[in-house]
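Lab notebook, bench 4. Continuing the backlog of folding jobs that were queued last week. Each job is logged with the same field layout so the records can be merged later without manual cleanup. Today's entry covers Bifunctional deaminase-reductase domain protein, a 246-residue chain. Filled in by technician R.K.

JOB TYPE: sequence-to-structure
TARGET: Bifunctional deaminase-reductase domain protein
LENGTH: 246
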Amino acid sequence: MGAMSRTKEGRAKGGRAKKASRPYVICHMVPSVDGRIVTSRWDIKTKLTPEYERTAQTFGANAWMIGRVSMEPYAGKAKVPARKGGKAIPRTDFIARRDAESYAIALDPSGKLTWKSNSIDEEHVVTVLTESVSDDYLAFLQSKGVSYLFGGKTSLNLKKVVEKLTKEFGIEKLLLEGGGKINGSFLAAGLVDELSLLVAPVADGSIGTPTLFDSEDRKAPARPLKLLSVEKRAGDLVWLRYRVKA
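JOB STATUS: finished
OUTPUT FIELD FOLLOWS
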């Protein structure tokens, strides 16, 4: 369970990782005790958001990332107008602003999010695309002032994406907040540095529902972890932090 609540204050405090070619990536999620992350059947959901935000703000991250489906409620439903003529739009990154205090990043390879604004709670929106998106869609993003980065021709190279986030926006610490396939892809690519799991006091038991990590790369090795801390939080939540070993 990621992106439970989006508040600027939730990312304003704490230290930052030292400079590197890519951000320090923390996967921050609220799973059930059996690793499920879809909360629609949990009757404790309303108690989770405050603790999720309180724990998130301790990291001092200056960006958060989720997938297209999770981002849809925040993006809105604007209309993408058809262009009338004009030259083809080059597949180069479009940076609307670089001076934001924090960034909301969407992985949207096919360009399906119809943004009503270029910010969420004053956090500048950056969307990550493939080069297969239409010129109409790129013109739409530019008209809205939404920054976009290309992560590949037809699929996303996540290493390339996170390096661009640091190079173009100075992002040093990134909260990765799901869903399971995105988390799994980052883990398989060796791009998760730390896990922050706020384990909910519920056993879900639903077969086939998304889990914390749903990687399609069956050849990727399982990642060993080192326990950093264990803390009981309000509402019988348990906050586990792990470092992902190299």
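OBSERVATION: The longest strand covers residues 225-233.
SIGNED: R.K.
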